[in-house]
Amino acid sequence: MKRKHLFIAVLAGIFILGAGCIFFQSWNHEEKEEKKTLRVGVTLYRGDDSFINDISGKIVEAAKTYEKDTGIKVVLDEVDGRGDQNQQNSQVDRFISLGVDVLCVNIVDRSVASYIIDKAMDADIPVVFFNREPVEEDMRRWEKLYYVGEDAREAAVLQGGILVDAYKKDTSTLDLDGDGKVSYVLLEGETGHQDSLIRTEWSIKTLKDGGVPLEKITGGIGNWERSQGSAWMEQWLDEYPNEIELVISNNDDMALGAADALERKKINRPVKIVGIDGTPQGMEGLRAGKLFGTVQCDSEEYARVVFQIAAAAGLGQNVQETVELEDGKYYNCSQAARTADEEEKHN
Ligand code: GAL
After folding, report:
1. Residue 85 has pLDDT above 70, yes or no
2. Is the pLDDT at 225 greater than 70, yes or no?
3. CB atoms < 10 A from the CB of 281, how many?
């Protein structure tokens, strides 16, 4: 008799457990099913930066494509930090209080990401950082932190390669006065930006290793800005008239600024200028013969990947199944060398 009771009790237990599981599963399923909207908060370090402006526009496009492809409604709010970290921190606070599913952060000051990371961790909201890379120690703090950028060394090696090829083909393209030296000026991005330091170092190294006899005239920090690149170049053209043969710039905007100065000063010497980014303005400058070369980042891929990671992380999906990441958190976009000659061939 006792055995029979025990048997019935076990059977009843199994039944209750099974029913419970089925109920939980369907409830859980409904929870997931309900997620028909994805709320994304994007904050930019400066909306007036040409490269960032291009990427941010393409993130909005990527969101529209995602909406069409998946039927999931995307509510994307994009704000400008205007170069002010405190303002950006408040923007993040606001996004969190509005209940976004994920944050995309182009951080103003890459050395102080901990404020944003703390807030995101508390609220369990994943963060996709892009273009301005937080230090590794910060990135390691949580598995829901991601970074999308470009390999600075690769960009610089490609930039240097454009010049090495040109010099090998015809030394007089760079050594304009034929004195056996290529005299150059250097326009650097922001101090402390991961891209500036590495791009400068590897561009020069590639030229030297490639056998180009370099002589540095001078250099300056132009903070990625066209106006600052232009102001430097104007000053250098006054200080070193007839000496500058080459301008190596960490990005296209400063390179275009140097071209503006040459134009303003009506210098007809074929000073060569190279940049990095391949922004719409940079490519236009290349076609117009203002820039000799640039390294173009695939900005569509860049924006698409930022959005794909954001969507997967924001919906609690497995991000690695959507995008292949290095170390579970890093993604580097493709880049390619572009020269005026090549552009001509394409058109
Ligand atoms: C660099 C880019 C620059 C500027 C900067 C902003 O990667 O080459 O043009 O946009 O990022 O962080």
Report:
1. yes
2. yes
3. 21
The reported pLDDT for the residue numbered 278 is 98
For residue 179, give every residue at least 6 positions away whose Cβ sits within 8 Å of its Cβ, in sequence order, or none.
Answer: none
For ligand 1, atom 5, name the residue with the nearest CA: 224
Cα of 316 from ligand 1 centre, angstroms: 30
Can you tell me the distance from the alpha carbon of 150 to that of 297, in angstroms, rounded to the nearest whole number?
Answer: 8
Q: What is the pTM (predicted TM-score) of this model?
A: 0.90
Closest listed residue to residue 148, CA positions, set 304, 41, 320: 304
Question: Is the Cβ atom of 49 under 6 angstroms away from ligand 1?
Answer: yes
Say if ligand 1 is within 6 A of residue 148 CB. Answer: no
Ligand 1 pocket, 277 CB below 6 A?
A: yes
Give residue 9's pLDDT band: very low, low, confident or very high (50, 70, 90): low
pLDDT digits (tens, 9 = 90+) for 133-173: 999 999 999 999 999 999 999 999 999 999 999 999 999 99
pLDDT number for residue 21: 42
CB of 223 closer than 6 A to ligand 1? no
Q: How far is the CA of 226 from the centre of ligand 1 (A)?
A: 12
Instruction: Report how far ligand 1's centroid is from the alpha carbon of 248 (Å).
Output: 15
| CB neighbourhood size of 339 (10 A) | 18
Q: Is 8 left (phi over 0), alpha (psi -120 to 50) or beta?
A: alpha
User: How remote is the CA of residue 51 from the centroid of ligand 1, in Å?
Assistant: 6
Buried b (16+ CB within 10 A) or exposed e, 296-310: bbebebbbbbbbbbb
259 has a pLDDT exceeding 80 = yes
